[in-house]
Model the fold of this input.
Amino acid sequence: MRHLLSTKDLSRAEAVAILDVAEDMADVAGREIKKLPALRGKTVVNLFFEDSTRTRISFEAAAKRLSADVINFSAKGSSVSKGESLKDTAQTLAAMGADAVVVRHQASGAPSVLAQSGWIDAGIVNAGDGTHEHPTQALLDAFTIRRRLHGASARGRDLDGVTVTIVGDILHSRVARSNVWLLSTLGAHVTFVAPATLVPIGIGDWPVTVGYDLDAAIAAKPDVVMMLRIQGERMNAAFFPTAREYARQWGLDDERLAKLPASSLVMHPGPMNRGLEISAKAADSAQSTVLEQVANGVSIRMAVLYLLLSGTTGEM
Amino acid sequence: MSILITGATLPDGTTTDLLVDGGVIAETGSNLSSNGATVIDAAGLTALPGLVDLHTHLREPGFEQSETVLTGSRAAAIGGFTSVFAMANTSPVSDTAGVVEQVASLGAEHGYVTVRPIGAVTVGLKGQMLSEIGAMAGSRAGVRVFSDDGICVSDPLLMRRALEYVKTFDGVIAQHAQDPRLTEGAQMNEGALSSELGLAGWPAVAEESIIARDVLLAQHVGARLHICHLSTAGSVDVIRWAKARGIAVTAEVTPHHLLLTEQLVRGYDSRYKVNPPLRREEDVLALREALADGTIDIVATDHAPHPLEAKECAWDEAANGMVGLESALSVVQASVVDTGYLSFADVARVLSSKPAEIGRLAGYASAFAVGDHANFTLYDPAVSREFSVEQLHGKSVNSPYLERTLPGQVVATIHNGYATVLDGELVDAADVAAAAGAARG
Done:
């Protein structure tokens, strides 16, 4: 794997292979010494143009568990905030010998631009670009679903026939985009539920069913309900009238939680707005995978960095 | 200085020699005597009237790192143009007689093309107060086209007043049709692809709704309206409807909107970032049809030079715009001539006589008759070439056609009776300036 830019480019076999390597990595986390020497001498740069402590420390933990050297480059307070261009930043990191660059950027496509620019040779991992994609989040979500459904026999399995309902701000969500491609590649059926203002235009060709009614979606007993974070500034832009109305229509509250089958998983990529898109009871229920998603994130990112830097070839 | 062109094929398909003397076509026919004239063998070449670009950004004054009047004029000449209309979004903005006179006189001094400045509709392009349109119209620059291009005159009352006011001076408002509220943060055409790429959408309705409003305003006040860079099938429908009602509206399309589609955005290569954005295949086909049936009147380049650093960045951060003067005729050939929509006689209309008429530029109503102004270009439509930075002669290289194969090549350009391009190469700047000075007398 040369870069990881989008889940759209992954075949089912490639995706299953990443999840399987992540299973091996998860085994390491259960050991007394949670560290492998696999990437000794490799340098991984976390290049974050946008603040995201959770994602950054997850990648940092992953790289360190593989014995890579980690450099954190945050745009805030650095030369970037003084007007340095993406090109100069990339060339600087190249000159310092970065082997992989994990990039989070507010502009959609910035990781693709880095991968194609010739400014830097390093493998590029997209850690979230604008409203485009967040591939490692989708991989850790798929990994979490597979583990919950198949436990110790998860290795080698796909998600054939699993029903996943993603609820909330699809329009602005890179998590939803990465998930729709990956989950459908793995054989799952994805449904979006959102107010019409937050459904992207022209998605008739996407492998997804679109609905507006969360109660109807819950009545269909999905295997997974994934709640997306709703951002307050969307209200000002007239996507919906008030937080109260949003929570009433599209929040996973206690009543809706009660109607959900006990076997259905409740997922959230975090950080959560308790009481808005998800109730505290739903977030803390036995069905909730929120903390497993965080733990699994480290395993997935170990797998991605390992596949990127251990000499396995082929673009994914 | 006289020039004899031998064996040129005119847009109507006939073949003739052309003797240029004293800035005009002195004689036509076959086997004309050279009599000391510079002879250009035009066998196999198509003679087109000097191309007129109603929509060029020359960037001077203010943005000389992107382009100057001289470098933009050179890019125009090598593209077969003999006149360009220079947009007003300079710094200072071209909203006073002083600035437009400066731009016009720089153009005249360099001599590669006739430079006709466009005046801003509103002071500083701010959309609040009308600029001194009368002063610009009455200046030595003789401005007749007014535009806030880059920004829409979105206030309906201000647009109404502007349309009415320019009637006084036989002027025209060239509207950049883009509803600002519907396009906040817009990055590319809104549709399935923008949703997939996660780029904020620029919906077709943001263009179409402004055009619909403005044709009704133009009808109401009985004014002339010109629509810049029309880009959607829906806009074509609105213009067709307006023309059927007899509204005095004209419309332009850019070469890039005739050839390229939004699919090019897929790699986030910011060379393809332009405003209005590249649209769908259906739009491209509708624009070609509309140009062929006269709904769209002209092709204009929207030549928009930017320095490297404005494009070497993430898509959202990149500047909008493409250079287009050098490639325009080849792209028109590829998109609408070789595909059967237009003949070269049509090309002469949409790239020369009609834009001149809209801009009230004299001397382009007829070409190639004895006594006509000697503004023309000799073009070889039979060759094809890999387009590269070597073919670009302005200051900037933000062309979407690099590494593409394009048909056709300008071999010579004659402006006011003297050569600006010979053997496919620009004539030296000092020689052109001297010839221009001599022609002015």
About this structure: Chain B has a mean pLDDT of 97.
